[in-house]
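Continued from yesterday's entry.
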Amino acid sequence: MGEKTGGPPRAGAGTGRPGSAGGDSRGPGAGRLLGWLFLLPALLVLGVLVAYPIGWTFVRSLFGARGWSDFSGLANYQDLFTDDDTFTALKNNLIWVLVVPALVTAIGLVFAVLTERVRFATAFKMIVFMPMAVSMLAAGITFRLVYDREPEKGAANAALVSVHDAFAEAAPYPGARPRPGSGLEPAGGGFATAAESPGGSVVMLPLVALADDKVPGRARPAAAPPAAPGQVTGVVWVDFGRGNTGRPGVIDPGERGLPGVKVEAVRGGRTVASATTAADGSFTLPERAAAAGPVQLRLAAANFEQAFRGYDWLGPNLITPAIIGAYVWMWAGFAMVLIAAGLAAIPRDALEAARVDGATEWQVFRRVTVPLLSPVLVVVLVTLVINVLKVFDLVYIISLGSSQKEANVLALQMYLASFGGGDNQGLGSAIGIVLFLLVLPAMLFNIRRFRRESK
């Protein structure tokens, strides 16, 4: 009889176990060693570009401005919290962290929801996301032009002035002032006569500092009205001829009256009557003005108020909000794209079920959409927190000049202290370490979240 076949295999024969005949002959640590060999180049790069600079920066922060011979311990960290410029940078960084991530995330959420309801969603996303393709340097230069103080140059003030002028009437003669020695004195933004005028008086009110192009086209040659019994009359005109000819306080040939000037009769600090000048600058107050005695004449402040010219966006009061506006313009598209991707992954059944149950669109958005989007919103929020803590170039470019101190942030102060004139690399290194410690919690939060999601 032949030998039996198909019996159980012999121990170690063809089982594929380590050490068996025909199996893997590598030891148990071979795979781990191979993994470390693959990681070694990345570890070397991280050590040279990340770990070493962090360690060196911390060591350098313990020394003063003179270098390694000037050991100062924690003095740089003490200066960091007592120096006015650094304290301003800390305060501004706090404003950035509290306002900007929440604002950009909210705008991105609104844009993402809107893109689901418009036909041109793709074009809208492209337009909103396009600023992300612009460098911070280019965006800073662009917004310096946008925020220019002059409405003729700055788009922001040009838009504000256009809207303002559409709803508010501008003063007819901004910047005009009385001829010296005319008896008119400043009073509440306007000008008033020093002497009182009884009924039957003709009052001459000459003005200067008014260019020809500011005089209305309907103005006629100035003419003083005749005296009227019981009434106060007068004339308001431009007391200045070409070539500075003519006599002060006297209407000379070629001098024009100023139409539309509001003239008030004041007695005891109270306005008792008013009149508006005609095309030749003449006016006649009602008889009741001088009925109770002489009155003081006042040219109302509304005649001379300077025209609205917008705001000084790059000044010390508005520089930080102005830079934040530029940052929001750049990063709103980033938030919109990420949130829109999360929105597309939401099961439509949940939204439709809420609508069937009678929920309004606002209730669906607040109680269904936002909770389901919360993981994506957290990702966007944390990413923006890390980003705004490191913001530098946008602040540096837009705030160039006298307002840079008010717009200062930690990253900019680190550069200024080390290389921008401060010449104190010890203090700059201390600021760098503090900035790293501020970013670290957000980084650890992200790592924990990634590990939780992987499990």
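--- second protein ---
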Amino acid sequence: MNIVKERVSYLKGLADGLGINEDTKEGKLLIAIIDVLDEIAEEIDRIYGEQADLEEYVDAIDEDLTRLEDELYEDDDYEDDAFVEVECPHCNEKIFLDKEVFEDEEEEEIICPNCNEPIFIKEECECDSEDCNC
């Protein structure tokens, strides 16, 4: 970013060396333009500094989050088999459902996140008994 500030400083020196002053309309304009460029260069430099601070902060947060994830998922109580893979009969995409969905006594349906069609979790019983516990 110092390149922009250096170039603005060069323009200021050039204007001074050429004897451009605010006595003429053109001189006022050129000096005003150079002043605005100087302010822009200062603001860009400030923004770059703040951006660097934010990047450091985000990196620190990322490292902390990674450390927490490692601690959380290293826990032996975490169940890898807590989900069941089900294939949608409409779009044939595989989705993962919580095992607790299958433990409910009532017939349930869920909506496929891929095709938005209903998927019936409990299959209908093939026997004709009303007291069936299949």
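Residues 71 and 77 are 12 Å apart (CA to CA). Helices lie at 2-17, 25-73, 100-103. Will compare against the first tomorrow.
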